[in-house]
Structures are given as structure tokens and as C-alpha cells.
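Researcher: Structure for this, please.
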Amino acid sequence: MSAVELAQSSEAPEGLPCCVFVALALLEAAGHEIETVEDGPKAGGLDWWQLANVWDIKRPWSALDAARELTGAGDCRILLVTDTAPPLRRGRWHVVQRWRNLGDGGEPGPEDDHVVPGRSTGHTYLAYLDEDGKTCRIVQTSTARGYRDTLGTWQGSAGLTGYAVGVVYLPKSWALEG
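Model: Predicted structure, C-alpha cell format:
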């Protein structure tokens, strides 16, 4: 069973949390066999799993850090999207993480951002930009809405106005199974 199949299955009737799905997909692409959610911390190790799933409120961007650590990929972060979303690269998958209402710690940059309990909201998902640069596939899960796989565009703000957004540019060889 792939991470996608797991997210679609009765094993996750309420929907997988977004970071769990992205972490499982990353581990699977790295060559680990994923049959259940419990395979995630076994495959990546508990420390990596905690990073990938944003367990520390003082490290809201840790899902991106975990993706970079596993893949060696680079990233881009925009502290507040107004009219232009972070760029995606053609023919590649990306890990996208967005936050609203983070505490900024008073210093410029994301290093001292933190989750404000009861106020901050975030989401992590996968995005693929076709070679033509016109069609964007978003694959995501949540406990509220379950698994979704949609096509659209990544233009202008890409629906991210008002969010702090980070993107990890996964290697061209990376592929989503399922």
C-alpha cells in the first residue's frame, strides 16, 4: 500500500493529518515500505518523525526542515504572501507549508517563528508543477476534509494571500507513488 492508498483507505476514515501524509510520501519515495502510519516513525526514526509532524511549537517550519534533511533539497520562504506566491519549479514535486498567525519572535526571518496555541493555523501538502508551467497538481489530506487530489494553476498568490509560506523543491527524480 502506498502513502496515497493509505490516505484514501478505510485505515484513515477521518483523514490523515496533513504532515503525516507528506512525511509518509517522502519516506516512501526514499525507498521505505509504507503499509501503515506506524511505519513512518520506524522508517524515519522518531526524531525525524517529530520534525516532519511539527511536534515542537517553537519550530513551526520543521516539516520543511525534515523534507530538506531527507532529500537534500533547497527551499524558499515568504514571510507574508501578498500578490505573489513562492515560485514552483517546472516538472517537479514540492512540499508546501503555510501558516497564518504565527508568533514572529520579534526578529526578522523565520528562525524565531512559533506556533501560538489557539491562534496559529497551518497546513502542509504536495504540489507538482507540470513541465509546461501551467498546470499544478495539489495532493493533500486533512482530518477535516480527507484526501484530495486536484488540478489548478500556480499563478499570482495561488490562494495563499495572508499566509507565511515555505516551499521545498524536491529533486527531479522524486515521485509520488500511487
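Researcher: Any notable elements?
Model: The longest helix spans residues 18-29. The chain has one domain: 3-169.
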